[in-house]
Write a structure and sequence with these properties.
Blueprint: H1 5-14, H2 16-27, H3 39-55, E1 59-63, E2 67-69, E3 75-77, E4 81-86, E5 94-100, E6 120-122, E7 125-127, H4 135-150, E8 158-164, H5 174-180, E9 191-194, E10 206-211, E11 213-222, E12 228-229, H6 230-233, H7 240-249, H8 272-280, H9 285-292, H10 302-310, E13 314-321, E14 332-333, E15 336-345, H11 351-368, E16 374-383, E17 386-387, H12 393-406, E18 411-415, H13 420-429, E19 433-436, E20 451-453, H14 454-474
Family: Belongs to the peptidase M20A family.
Binding site for Mn(2+) 1: 133, 168, 446
Domain Peptidase M20 dimerisation: 210-366
């Protein structure tokens, strides 16, 4: 007799110690894709994961996606993408699960309370780089599949896995691979599930059906061939940093409104349905303020805050390359500085149009400075926003699974972040994509003391198991 989903849940509960140990092994691998000297660790992480899938009986293909050209002109091999299958029953539906195995840089000196590459269990939280972004969720899928096998329960649907090692560095080559395999590997897939997103708060689970896009800009200003001593040259040269800071200050006002002319032209007004979703979401502005440690926010009501995070574009200034930023004093005039900022875009905003608007405005602002310095602005990254059909059976399965495990109706949300692979799947496969969020809003992905709540890790596996079963029930039959 086939066991029940409750047997799968029980197996998950009984193997908490094993699953935590596995996550510790994964976190210990310094798979930082943005640091060329650690690319070997990314490859090791990919290989470890492929071997794990093979132990589960999966068919694994390690797809070579070529090389990356570094800033110095040298080439570095990209880690292969894992395309794997577990189950090939033609009578069953098929879901494709996406995740990534690389992580952001981290050092103890950055302000971590413990070694970022040693999983540390404190107060019901698992601290470590990649714990929530995205090693914990990827490993949860493999633990979930293993739990079905352990209790001799067949997977309710076939599972395909698409796992990469370059997400934190722009997913180089992945979009092309998805397009190339759109009618082969992804040809018989019925829907896509991604667990690389977060709840709106810490208590109520979420399903995410929309993401903002990203247009990233770099402004370069050069005033001399070498750095200059301010005591010798200060007051006699047009300083690059002065020009740059004036341009950056012209981009956005103190209320957060973007000052680039025409930037809001394509933004759709908030619909009644979206306004109602905002009103129904379980979200506390005060909890949000306290979680980030801000004294006050630019908006004050739940509806206004969510509208600015989900439905309106925002501009953020990220840093200045070439400027002195270390401890102590250094009286240098930098000869060349590069300011970096981005605009998070919303549906209907096209990256090409945003690029034109921003470049025209920045060029005009620079010309008004009447500076003789060399100036250049580029947009190295431009991706569209993404919105999925939240009435699709894929979302029905996600809602039912969340409700079963957590006992509450999940929030249905859009998110202010960008995950370009969602667009790649939507564009090249025309499949519905669900973001099945497992992490809490305070997990600190990309930050110091990144963590994954132990309860989210364990319950997340149950949600995944229930989701697979629900998919088999709600996806339309042939």
């Amino acid at each position: 007799m086939t066991s029940s989903i409750q047997d799968v849940f029980t197996h998950i509960e009984n193997n908490q110690q094993l699953f935590v140990k596995r996550l510790a092994e994964w976190v210990s691998v310094r798979s930082v894709s943005s640091q060329p000297e650690l690319r070997g660790e990314v490859l090791r992480m990919v290989q470890m994961t492929a071997q794990h899938i093979e132990r589960l009986g999966g068919a694994v293909e390690m797809v070579d996606i070529g090389t990356e050209t570094l800033a110095d002109g040298s080439k570095l091999a990209l880690p292969p993408v894992i395309l794997a299958e577990i189950g090939r029953d033609p009578a069953k539906k098929t879901v494709c699960v996406y995740g990534h195995l690389d992580v952001q840089p981290a050092q103890l000196e950055d302000g971590w309370d413990s070694d970022p590459f040693t999983l540390t269990h404190r107060n019901g939280k698992l601290y470590g780089r990649g714990a929530t972004d995205d090693k914990g969720p990827v490993l949860s899928w493999l633990n979930c599949i293993e739990s079905f096998q352990a209790v001799s329960k067949a997977l309710p649907v076939n599972v395909k896995l698409c796992l990469e090692g370059m997400e934190e560095s722009g997913s180089i080559g992945l979009g092309e691979l998805i397009a190339e395999r759109g009618k082969s590997f992804f040809g018989n897939v019925d829907c896509v599930c991604i667990s690389d997103s977060y709840w709106l708060g810490t208590q109520t689970p979420c399903l995410t059906f929309g993401l903002r896009g990203l247009c990233y800009f770099e402004i370069e200003v050069q005033c001399a061939q070498r750095d200059l001593h301010s005591g010798v040259y200060g007051g006699s040269v047009h300083e690059a940093m002065t020009d740059l800071t004036q341009i950056l200050a012209s981009l956005v006002d103190s209320s957060g409104r973007i000052l680039v002319p025409g930037i809001y032209k394509s933004v759709k007004p908030l619909s009644e349905m979206e306004a109602q979703l905002c009103a129904n979401v379980d979200f506390s502005p005060e909890e949000y303020r306290l979680e980030i440690g801000a004294t006050t926010l630019q908006q004050h009501t739940k509806e206004d805050i969510l509208n600015h995070r989900w439905h309106l574009p925002s501009l953020s200034i990220h840093g200045i390359e070439g400027a002195f930023s270390e401890l102590g004093q250094k009286t240098v005039i930098p000869s060349r500085v590069v300011g970096k900022f981005s605009i998070r875009t919303v549906p209907n905003m096209e990256p090409d149009e945003v690029e034109r608007q921003v470049k025209d405005y920045v060029a005009q602002t620079f010309s008004e400075l009447r500076s003789p310095n060399r100036f250049r602005i580029t947009m190295p990254v431009g991706s569209q926003a993404w919105v999925a059909d939240s009435t699709h059976p894929n979302y029905t399965a996600g809602r039912n699974a969340m409700r079963r495990v957590f006992g509450v109706e999940p929030n249905l949300i859009r998110d202010g972040c960008s995950i370009p692979v969602t667009l790649d799947f939507a564009r090249h496969t025309a499949l519905n994509v669900l973001l099945l969020s497992l992490g809490a809003c305070d997990d600190g992905a990309h930050s110091q003391n990144e963590k994954f709540n132990l309860s989210n890790y364990m319950n997340g596996m149950k949600v995944m198991a229930s989701y697979l079963e629900e998919l088999s029930l709600v996806l339309p039959k042939e």
